[in-house]
Amino acid sequence: YFEKLGFEILEKKLFSKETKDNKDYDIAKSYFESIPGYSDADTMCNECDYRKATDLLNAGKYKDAETIFKTLGEYSDSKTKAEECIYNQAEILFGQGKYEEAKELYDTITYGDSATKAKQCVYNVAEALFNAKDYAGAKNKFASIEYLDSQDRAKESAYQEADTLYQKDEFAEAETVFLSIAGYNDSDNRAKDCHLQQGKVLMNSGD
Questions:
Q1: What angle do CA 134, 140, 145 make, to 5 degrees?
Q2: Distance in angstroms (rounded) separating the CA atoms of residues 90 and 88
Q3: What integer pLDDT is reported at residue 74 of this predicted model?
Q4: What is residue 204's DSSP assignment?
Q5: Residue 41, C-beta contacts closer than 8 angstroms, at least 6 positions apart
Q6: Predicted local distance difference test score (pLDDT) of residue 10
Q7: pTM value?
Q8: Which residues have C-beta within 8 Å of that of residue 99, sequence separation ≥ 6?
C-alpha cells in the first residue's frame, strides 16, 4: 500500500503542470523510505531526489540542485549533473566579470569546456592587469597558461615592465627583464643599453 501510494504521488508530480515546488517528491520519498529494502523502494528514493534536483537545475537554482545531485553519488548521471550545476554557477560569475571566482569553480570540474573557460578567466585577468599597467602581474598571468596568444602577451608584458623600469633609471632590474625575453622585439639591444647606462652611472658616481 505504501509503495503504491508513493508511486501515485510521484506520478502525479511528474505529469502535473504545476511545478512551482518540490513537496510532492519529498512526500513520495517519505513513503518509499518507510519500506526500505522492499521491491525497488530504495531506488525510488533516489529517483525522487534526482527528479527534485533536476527541477531545481531547470529552474536555475544551481547550488541547491548541486547539493542534491552530490548526495546521490553514482545514481544515474548524478555526478555529471552536479558538474553541470557547478559549470552554470561558474558561467554566471564569468558573465559578471568575476573571473578569479569563476576559475575556482571551473577548476573543480571536467564538464564541457570548463578547462578552456578556466584559461580564458586567467587571460581576462591578465588583460585587465596589463591595461592597468601592472605589467609584472600581467606577465605572470599570461605566462601561466597556453591560451590563444598568451605566451606572446607574456613577452609583451615583460617588455613593457622592463621599459617602465628603464624610465625610472632602474637599469639593472630592466636589464634582467629584457634578458628574460631575449630575441623579442629589440630586447637584446635594450639589455645592452641598460648595461651601458649602468656603466655611465658608476662612472659619474666615481665608483
A1: 130
A2: 5
A3: 97
A4: H
A5: 3, 6, 32, 33, 35
A6: 61
A7: 0.86
A8: 93, 121, 122, 124, 125
Query: Rounded to an integer, what distance in angstroms lies between the CA atom of residue 172 and that of residue 157?
Result: 18
For residue range 3-30, list pLDDT tens digits in order.
Answer: 555 556 665 555 444 444 556 888 888 8
C-alpha span between 132 and 153 (Å, rounded):
15
In angstroms, rounded to a whole number, what is the distance separating the alpha carbons of residues 31 and 26?
9
42 against 14, higher pLDDT: 42
Torsion of the alpha carbons at 175, 178, 183 and 184, rounded to the nearest 10: -150
CA–CA distances in Å: residue 10 to residues 23, 30, 85: 10, 11, 24
Rg (CA), the chain: 29
Residue pair 145/119 in contact (Cβ under 8 Å)? The answer is: yes
Instruction: At 105, list the grid cell.
Output: 569553480
Instruction: Specify whether the CB–CB gap between 162 and 177 falls below 8 A.
Output: yes
